[in-house]
Description:
The complex is a heterodimer.
Chain A: E1 2-12, E2 15-24, E3 27-31, H1 38-46, E4 53-58, E5 61-65, E6 70-71, E7 79-82, H2 94-99, H3 114-120, H4 136-148, E8 154-158, H5 172-183, E9 187-191, H6 194-198, E10 203-208, E11 211-217, H7 218-221, H8 225-232, E12 238-248, E13 253-258, E14 264-268, H9 269-272, E15 281-286, E16 292-294, E17 305-317, E18 320-326, E19 330-336, H10 337-343, E20 350-355, E21 361-363
Parallel strand pairs in A: 3-9, 3-10, 7-8, 8-9
Antiparallel strand pairs in A: 1-2, 1-4, 4-5, 5-6, 10-11, 12-13, 12-15, 13-14, 15-21, 16-20, 17-18, 17-20, 18-19
Chain B: H1 3-7, H2 11-44, H3 50-62, H4 65-76, H5 81-90, H6 98-122, H7 126-134, H8 139-167, H9 171-176, H10 187-196, H11 201-232
Helix pairs in contact in B: 2-6, 2-8, 3-6, 4-5, 6-8, 7-8, 8-11, 10-11
Amino acid sequence: MHALSARLKIQKGNFSLDVEVDFLKGITGVFGPSGSGKTTLMHLISGLEKPDEGHIEIDNSLILDTSKNWNVKSRKRRIGYVFQEGRLFPHMTVRKNLLFGSIYANKDQQIIHFNEVVDLLEIRELLEKRPKNLSGGEKQRVAIGRALLSAPKLLLMDEPFSSLDVALRRQIIPYLIRINIKLGIPMLVVSHDLPDLLSLTQELFLLRNGRVEGHGNYFDLIQSEKSLDIMRGAGLMNVIPFKVESHDVENGLTHLINRDASHEINVERELINDCCKVGDELNVSLRPEDIAITLNEISDISIRNQLKGKITKIIKKENRTYCLVDVGFLLIVSITQASQQKMNLDVDEEVYCLFKSMALQINI
Amino acid sequence: MNMNELLNFSEDELLAIGLSFRVAFWCAVFILPPSVFLAWWLARKQFRGKSIVEGFLNLPLVLPPVATGFILLLLLGTNGLLGKCLNEWFGIKLAFSFYAAVIASMVVSFPLAIRAIRLSIEMVDPGYEEAAKTLGANSLQTFIRVTLPLALPGIISGFILAFARSLGEFGATIIFAGNISGETQTIPLALFNEIQVPGHETAAFRLLLVAVVFSFAAMSFSEILVKKLHHRK
Lengths: 364, 233
């Protein structure tokens, strides 16, 4: 069942948005460069702007149909909107901010109670503080909590990573995943930062110049040249789910194993930071530029991670060549055209993908 | 002239001071709700002819107060356009009464109050209002719970400005309310009287002192509030 389905058209000066989107339950990412219409899309869904033409259904209930002159007001749509800057009310404490919307919400429709939100987002010690005394990440958690307490059927997140420092920006991810798992509330996350978005979800909509240029699973999308073209400027990324297999204390390594237990990789224990127990699941990100391709396994080399696979597709873009290699899961590898020609790489060729464990990023 | 004489207020002067404060207080109180509403309307809504409305509302700022008083007399005087109806239907005579002094003050203070309040509402990020709407609040609830408290220093500042402007009001009052001791004779009017009479310089000085002290206090307080508004931002 669709959590949300929308057809929206709006003309604003030179910019026009014309999109058709359907989101399933779970977390869906909307990726697009600045000016692609992401915020307009969020405003239209939430009712802060009205489209020239449009039709929106949430959970199969109609909230907008311009042809029938039907328009449910923003405050009645039950869409939680977490704004980029949080927009916490500066004259209220965190507690009052959190409770702002709950007086308008129907008690039977509440998906979560005050105390649960406070515990889930770990904001109990902030309750009596004013927003100006909070850090960026804290503000964002409070904003999420405030939206959740207004009993939403859908959560919109506008650029949840960009208001935070680089070092902290991914801190929000575990909270979002927890909310999605625990409350089952569908989430729509808009971002211009592909690697950050991918560490949260692989279900993507690609937006460019007000049009949806592709949607589906990330790994299906990178196989289409048009989608790849939109995404590659933003930092393509391999995101692979792994499970902690064992810790090798003596050598300072942690062994990770992929879903079907066909592949094992090693990462430095420092990266894992001792926060994962054996059996924990985590996402590993790896930049396509950090992977090397060889035709044979190399034994006299310091790189331990060598995954055997088969090239399924080769896409040339300017002077880069992107190889999709099926190593049991799909890896996207970026090499120079010169290398590709010299090695005479082609589809169906068996190759090894090499990467240093330091090149891996762990998202817990 | 010694210090004792400067503080030795006559009964008429005390009457004028008390009256001034009553007029100023009621002026500021009555002016506040429409000022807040109009300020919000001007700050948040775009509509055709907005500049004309703004020009009209600001008119008392530049019009000679005497002219304003004359317009009020023409409108609300016993033989005025509206005044006649009020008198004939309800037996209400506004001109040359305490209420006339309050009305004259209100008209001249109105643009000042609107300006201060509008400025403070414009400084409230509309993003907060959007957030309130997505959380389920309607326009009135949003205004009361978000816009109003965030603009509060400006609203208090508008109240004080209206109060202070009313304390200094002369031209419109003397035309529309007259110069009746104990009823419409406020500090400026009393001061005007004293200056006219030779030998009453000390009395004039006493009133002058009162006018300066209270005007200064009101303006300083208003400035502090404006600073607070900026600081909060």
